[in-house]
Design goal:
This protein is α/β, with parallel strands linked by helices and about 525 residues long. The protein contains 15 helices and 22 strands. Keywords: NAD, Oxidoreductase.
Length: about 525
């Protein structure tokens, strides 16, 4: 079993998996990246027990020392950046330039949070009583379960795992099955950075077994916080499960992200942003562009420029210089095929739809299209507000286009889907930019930039169907992995009762100036 990727509980590999499943290269499905040993619910529970057992000792380590461990992770990630990025490209088909950027995101996250180990500030608060002091402290929540998707197989998990560990929590991580080989490499870097056994555990399991294991662990009081990145449908189920135990999970879900193009926008810049937003990572980001909402006066010009840019974009072998490569996995290919079925007779399709094959070729394709899960980038003009294509996340290389008259209409269209993750506006008018930001429901707004892109020190997260208002990254994520504790210390030598024994300062409220 040494060649099979196995779960890790308390620093030990869990032998005898329920079954194994292959992880293949989506750009070359004949390339077996690794065999994954899938565990049952009992392994998830055992991992939660190990995390619970290790948490007290880990939390007792001073926060600056935990910060040093995070610094070690950052240094090892830097040393292994090219190797880890190459594995990301091989296992999920992300272009190498993007994969390198993803690993850099981990390094940036570590750089930010290693310093937080010397902050984690509370406050000293004045008391209304004499000889009494009030304090606030951040305390770790306990054992944390992290369930993540595979489209960002190492960057997004780091947004949970790094701050969770820094704050004194322990972790049970369930990565996606189709990115489990790179997930195992990610774990090994943490293990070699000084993270003790039991503090960081990894469970490889399918969705139903993961849910069953999480349900049992919550029922047993073993898990204190859940972080989930994935679909809105599954996020809703996890939110319901956590609610039964009076817990609030950190949910980062899907998106149908709008981009508004105003009548005064720099159209060349807007096209560049739409191209990267819509088709980078083959449209498989939660922040990918869903619908371009274009002002009527510039609609024709924008669509013409956008179609030309998409037609000229390089796609194919992700180890080469391409905008995007394959879909992540067969199940995503099947889901995207369903999305293409939403294209109706009233739509105008620019470009070719469907899978790239010798019978359905793409000019300038880089590599062998028959080897992998490659799909044509498609623009669908004329989408209407009640279309399935307008309302639902597609998670693949298709972008809808619609028009608007005035900015309030554009904002209403941007909010209609019920998602609220990311958004963008292209304008040269500051008033329009602020009006859009105030009216759009998205948790993230870009002005003259793409809907995609995150920095390690800026809050990341959405509202509505895109999440429950929780935020990752920067100081804001600390509220997910710490609990506020207040402490009052009375050294007066007597019982002083707040709101009852306070001194009232008298005033002459009848005084008037002559």
């Amino acid at each position: 079993m040494s060649s099979v990727i196995l779960s890790v509980v308390a620093g030990e590999r869990v032998q005898n998996p329920l079954r194994t499943t292959p992880s293949t290269n989506p750009a070359n499905t004949a390339d077996l990246v690794g065999e994954i040993g899938l565990a049952g619910p009992e392994v998830f529970v055992a991992a939660a027990e190990a995390a619970r057992e290790a948490q007290t000792g880990w939390a007792a380590l001073p926060a600056p020392q935990r910060g040093q461990v995070i610094a070690n992770v950052g240094r090892l990630m830097t040393a292994n950046k090219s190797r880890l990025a190459a594995l990301v490209t091989r296992e999920i088909g992300k272009p190498l330039a993007e994969a390198l950027g993803e690993v850099q995101e981990i390094i940036d996250t570590c750089d930010f949070f290693l310093g937080e180990g010397r902050r984690l500030y509370g406050q000293t608060v004045p008391s209304e009583m004499p000889d009494k002091q009030l304090f606030t402290f951040r305390r770790p929540v306990g054992a944390v379960a992290v369930i993540s998707a595979g489209n960002f197989p190492v960057a997004v998990p780091s947004w949970y795992i790094v701050p969770a560990l820094l704050c004194g929590n322990t972790v049970v991580w369930k990565p996606a099955e189709y990115s489990a080989v790179v997930s195992d490499a990610f774990y090994e870097i943490f293990a070699h950075s000084g993270v003790p056994a039991g503090v960081f555990n990894v469970v490889h399991a399918d969705g139903p077994d993961t849910f069953a294991g999480l349900e049992q662990a919550l029922l047993g009081g073993l898990i204190d916080k859940v972080g989930f990145t994935g679909s809105s449908e599954v996020g809703s189920r996890i939110g319901e499960l956590c609610g039964r135990h009076l817990q609030t999970p950190c949910l980062e879900l899907g998106g149908k992200n709008p981009m508004v193009i105003t009548e005064n926008a720099d159209l060349d810049l807007a096209v560049e942003g739409a191209l990267f937003s819509g088709f980078g990572t083959a449209g498989q980001r939660c922040t990918s562009l869903g619908t371009v909402i274009v002002q009527e006066a510039v609609h024709s010009d924008f669509v013409e420029l956008f179609a030309a840019a998409v037609s000229a974009a390089k796609m194919g072998d992700p180890t080469q210089d391409v905008l995007f490569g394959p879909l992540l996995d067969e199940k995503f290919a099947a889901g995207f095929e369903k999305s293409l079925g939403w294209i109706g007779d009233h739509h105008r399709v620019l470009g070719t739809t469907g899978r790239v094959t010798p019978d359905n070729p793409r000019d300038g394709f880089v590599g062998d299209p028959a080897a992998g899960l490659f799909y044509h980038p498609t623009i669908v003009d004329g989408v209407l507000p009640d279309d399935e294509l307008f309302l639902n996340e597609t998670f693949g290389p298709v972008v809808g286009v619609t028009t608007y008259g005035d900015l309030p209409e554009a904002i209403a269209l941007g909010n209609k889907s019920g998602y609220g993750l990311s958004s963008s506006i292209y304008t040269t008018d500051p008033q329009q930019a602020f009006q859009f930001a105030q009216g759009i429901s998205a948790g993230m707004v870009s002005v003259n930039n793409s809907t995609s892109g995150a920095e390690a020190h800026l809050p990341f997260g959405g509202n509505g169907k895109s999440g429950n208002g929780s935020r990752q990254s920067g100081i804001w994520v600390l509220d997910q992995f710490t609990r506020w504790q207040s402490l009052n210390w009375d050294y007066s030598g007597k019982l002083q009762k707040a709101q009852m024994d306070t001194v009232t300062v008298e005033a002459d409220f009848g005084f008037l100036l002559p």
